[in-house]
Amino acid sequence: MSPESLFDFLASTRLPLVSSLSTIVGWLSLGLALATAVFGTACLFVDGGLWTAALPWSGALPSLVAAPIFFVAWRHWRAAALPRAASWLFAALFTLAMLANLPCGGFSPAAYLHPVLALLATVGLGVVPGLTWTLVAVTVLLLGAMVRPGEGVPAAVLPELWLHVTSLAAITLASALAGAITNRLLGMALLTAEAQRRKNVESSRALRHREKLLRHALRVETIGDLAGMVCHQLRNSFQVLMGHAALGAMGDEAERGRRLQLIESALAEARPLLDQLMSLAHPDEGASEACDVAACLRQFEAQARPVLPQAVQLRAEIPERLPPVLLNPRGLVHALWNLVINARQAIEGEGLITLRCGADGHQVWLEVQDTGVGMPPEVRARIFEPYFTTKPPGQGTGLGLTAVDRFVRGSNGLVQVDSEVGRGTTFRLRFPQLQSAAQTRSA
Asked: CA-to-CA distance for 208 and 197, rounded, in angstroms?
């Protein structure tokens, strides 16, 4: 910020005040330019109307001199140069007031503008420009009282002329000093406000960055576990591919063609595994939308079935259609992968994972049930705490179920957990139906 001009500081910020202030400066400059030009031209047609105390604002000369300066101020405003426009506007106002007051020797309506202009100039233009214009105006005021003492003033008032002029000059100087103090106080207040605004912007940017890093961290454990299962399935696929290649090399032309077709089919079956891993690792979270949970669950079942080992069966109990809910489909898939991977790790040897969904009341629910080892109450009470994990060191971050809980709560839903040691675990996610979710958000 310039130590002088308040307009320079305001023009360098994006404060809402700038737009309103700029509009006032622009239209005031244009309006005064037209008014003074018309008034000055009209005075020229009056006998002796060029510069005389007998006419309002001392005739044509003050208005015709000030009109071009007002117009220059308006041109600077049109060029989006607010500080320059404000400087030229004050120059025109001081010029008009001084020239209008000079023929009257101190008794003129224009003389009473000096304290107001001194105050506004020192507040807006700064201490040095404002005081400079004030001193010039006071000098012209005193000069007019000496050169043309009381022209057009009643004789009874003449003895009090110097008292009046010096008092008005003192008030003008006092107004300028008050404006200088106000300028510094406003400057300090606006500097503090601008610093706080920038601090808030930086804090908001840093918060968004940390939120992005947290979302990425919440994916790490899921991606790592899923990558392990994908690698296991791809290893089996590679063994099949190598077997087809070896048998094709030993066979005739027809056998080699058949084996190549089988290899192509095996590769096509393996590709969705890699696509699924890449889609889960993609940083784009997507946006909330009307979602059919049944359709999402069917699609997820088709993606998860080839990833799970043969010893773990995946069963789905999904109705044809459910009422829509408002959520992020990618976030739902991420949550389901976390729950299925946890269920897979809870199953020792052979087992079953069941996916269910349905609706009751104003809610849509879905379940992930496993036949694993289950959880004791003390573990079940802490499963959603960040970084809490029962896995050995180095094998889990404790963020998987935290991600599930964050997603469900962010979708205005809730998570229910039913688990007993030796009898498996059931996670039930409940979401409000679309109309209920919209009412919740509006409330």
From this structure: 16
The answer to whether 406 touches 400, Cβ cutoff 8 Å, is: no
What tokens appear for 200 in the block?
């808030």
Spatial separation of the C-alpha atoms in residues 18 and 10, rounded to whole Å = 6
Question: Residue 61 has what pLDDT?
Answer: 93
Could you give phi then psi for residue 142, rounded to 5 degrees?
-70, -35
Q: Which two tokens stand for residue 359?
A: 């609706």
Distance CA 111, CA 165 (A): 9
Please tell me the least confidently modeled range out of 104-113, 182-191, 389-398: 389-398
Residue from 139, 37, 47 nearest 98 by CA = 139
Does the structure show a pLDDT above 80 at 234? no
Task: Enter the tokens of residue 272.
Answer: 């969705």
Class (C level, CATH) for 284-442: alpha beta
Best CA proximity match to 328, nearest among 223, 215, 227: 215
Contact 423, 375 (CB under 8 A): no
| Whether this model's pTM surpasses 0.70 | no
Q: b/e string for 3-26 if b means 16 or more Cβ within 10 A?
A: ebbbbbbbbeeebeebeebbeebb
Q: What would you report as the CA-atom Rg of the chain, rounded to the nearest whole angstrom?
A: 41
On the question of pLDDT at 136 being above 90, the answer is yes
Residue 399 to residues 141, 256, 331, 410, 416: CA-CA distances in angstroms?
A: 78, 49, 15, 16, 18
